[in-house]
Design brief:
heterotrimer, A alpha/beta (about 350), B alpha/beta (about 350), C mainly alpha (about 300), A: about 350 residues, alpha/beta, Rossmann fold, 12 strands, about 35% helix, C: about 300 residues, mainly alpha, MetI-like fold, 12 helices
Amino acid sequence: MGGQGAGEQVVGEYGTGVHGALLQVSDLRVEIATRRGIVRAVDGVSLEVPSGEAVGLVGESGSGKSMTLRAIIGVLPPEARVTAGQIMLDGIDLTQLSNAQLNKIRGPKIAMIFQEPMSALNPVMRVGQQIAEGPQVHLGMNRAQSAERALELMRRVGIPDPERRFRSFPHEFSGGMRQRVMIAIALSCEPSLILCDEPTTALDVTIQDQILRLLAKLCRESGTSLVFVTHDLPVVAQVCHQLAVMYAGKIVERGTVQEVLTEPSHPYTLGLVRSAPDVDHPRSSLVAIPGSPPSLISPPSGCRFHPRCKFAEEDCTVIEPSLRLLDSGRATACLHFERCLEAVRAEGADR
Amino acid sequence: MSTQQAVTADLQPSGEAGPLLAATGLSVSFQLGSALMARMRHEAHVLHAVDGVDLHIERGEALALVGESGSGKSTLARALAGLQRPDSGEIRMDGKLLPARRSRSDQRKIQMVFQDPYSSLNPRMTVGGMLHELLRVHHIVAGNEVESYTRELLGLVGLTEEAVHAYPRQFSGGQRQRVAIARALALRPELLVADEPVSALDVSVQATILNLLQDLRAELGLTLLLISHNLAVVRHLCDRTAVMYLGRIIEVAPTETLFARPRHPYTAGLLAAIPRMTFAAEGDAPAVQGDPPSPLRIPSGCRFRTRCPLAQPICEQEDPALTSSASDPAHSAACHFAFASVPPQRRPAVDERTTS
Amino acid sequence: MSAISITGTAGSPESSPQAGPAERAQPRRRQWYRQPALIAGLAIIGVILILVIAAPLITSYNPDAQNLQATLSGFSAKHWLGTDQEGRDTFTRLLYGGRIDLQVAFIAVLFPFVLGTILGSVAGYFGGWVDIIIMRLVDIVVAFPFFVLIIALVFVLGPGERSIYIAITLVGWVSYARIIRGEILVAKRQEYVLAAQSGGLSNLRIMGRHLLPNVITQAIVYAMSDIVQDILAIVTLSYLGLGIQPPTADWGTMISDGQNFLTTHWQLTTIPGLAVVITGLGLSLIGDGLADLLRPGQ
């Protein structure tokens, strides 16, 4: 739906130009076949990840953020498939590659870390071996070399006593340590892009803090790009420079983290920001977003958010807005974003 | 009598000035596996989930119990609610000692709302069925009033009559939590214990439940014990906060005081570790280093010393008790240097060796 | 599926939910007819049941009536499947035999089901000594091969229907107990059980009204395959002369009697044998179909 209008210009989005972007997703669509109909889990998502930067992808459950990530690295569940769009990594369109070809890329060029380290790590394989496996397969290292590399990686991600821990099994590690192991595995073949699917959601606050700083540091020091998916807005602010907000399979807002969080230009983002209690500024009452997320099989007409939006007007029920550029590289998919910005500024003045 | 009046009727302050609930020296432990295997691994055979806790809850207040995994907060909450038998210590309600096996009338005075909205409702019972059963078994209202009272309860939490004949699977997560809250309120409890009531919900839905809890407190004068790992939620909702670490309460204070001037290094670290929306944390050094020690191998002396940037030799020898200063008796902390006028030297590099 | 609409006295109004959980509700009820195994099984058993129930309408012979003039006759218009060595009509005996065998099997599966469920619930819910004792009992019974134990018990108790019931109950309860105990061990950790306990509901009530409805489906599925085993047991016992006593017609005795004439009148043994197989097949298919249908999750 929306045809060409649904996609938008990708050139010069973040001021880096096409050539500066490591990853370029254009008008990606992922559909899942279910008994009840076709679920349009990702419906026209375009994203650019510059080299060496961390881009956050924020949304609640059902927004399509995890599916987007999986589509990029090509590990969609069997019922799901990419029906349109391109994923350009270093000039190659990943959607056109076979699984065998993708396997060569996974590891050396692109890696992923998951939410539940216990299920993402092989419980019966020693941790050191799991980290060393990638270099053995992709970089052709022998056992000794890959073991050395694994130890080096373990040190880099902050696993204490790596020589002893090399021979440990995942269940002997705490949650935070397992997450570090996963990061080490992801780094093992020096990929240029790491996809992170809610990596700290299952961790305690203090451990989350450690992992987030580690990821930010790795991104800075080794120039690895990150795509960081989470539902937790403050978390994204810790690691990412750029931020895209997803709702019902579409991106509704994009910009730098500071811009989007301090001056949201889409009512959904505004709702997210307002409904989360702020530890530093307690509000008297939280403003919840009324209603619930829409069905992805038959989404509402026009703007998908309109049934829950307090700024909604007639045209919102009819026209499906596409992302439009604002100044300074920001983009929003709201027809009446000015009203949203006004409301934000009025609130700011009150405080 | 409206539901609100009916529920508050039982909540009139008693003649006594004491706290609604007071626990002293409470300990809960679990036996683990084989004693032999544990000894071979140099681990304790018994897990002390809650290790000597004193806590009191005043009528009408909202107390938060904060901690990370392994702190014992859920176990403590369940022990207070009578769902977990403590090994030692006592729990008194309005001064009266509660025995290990509570009577039905005592049991109903403390009700719980659980974290997981998907497993806390019986999938085979309708919402109406659940509520009717509770109302009838405890004779809360006369037989012919059960149906109307059920509807009023549902109205109190923002659900309509349609919910009466519905099964839990027809509801979303937020709605299920509302049902769970209605169920807890059905017995007209004096204390509502909410164990991470919003952690499993989407952010936008969390707000509705938090608002609901806030409104219920205001309307019914409900006393609330909130267990949470999310300090932002705690600050929003609770008057007083207690912080737990490895089975002990290490700091208690009115919420605002705790946030403004934490006295225990762990609390300070916890507050610093919370990600903020408005700025990215500076530097690579995390707020709290290292991993928490395994609860089976609790460090000697102060249990936090292995991760504490202020640890001194005395911390290894003496286990600090929860004390307060004369100037601010409402604020207590379990640290040798909690109220020291001059903070001790920071250790240059904290050992990251974990003890697990 | 009616959506649940909400208006709030507290907080903002929520519109009708369409999210995931609401969609999960329908599958079970609507889709039973889409299970091929279930349909096939029901069809087979349906036909068999109709035949055996309507036996008096289908055949006018008395299954016990001997006709020594017409012994061992082959297929004929008068006797569709011929007669046995005492002149009794085979077809009639087949139908009436089916009646007895199926009836005994269906009833026999109930007692172990009930006994096993009760013991399993108690063991799983209370744990501790009760659990240990019951599980040791299970271990003892399980140590013996099923058929050996049944045969031994019937031998000791004396042949006949009553002994069959007793033997099957004493031996068959263990499978149900194990299944139910396992399910209860998992289910009792669910928070709704804690909630019921905190609501001051008695243990009996929680076990019966809250836990059991959630765990019973596994036992029901198992019961289907158990009936097959019971039919085999009954037929075997009768074959050995320990079960249904002659002259009452039943498939086991028919198979046993007809053995001697296998070369000349094969239908006397083979047809009842086939009946056993087909019935077993039908019941197994129902069991499979039910298992698929009641399997939790997608």
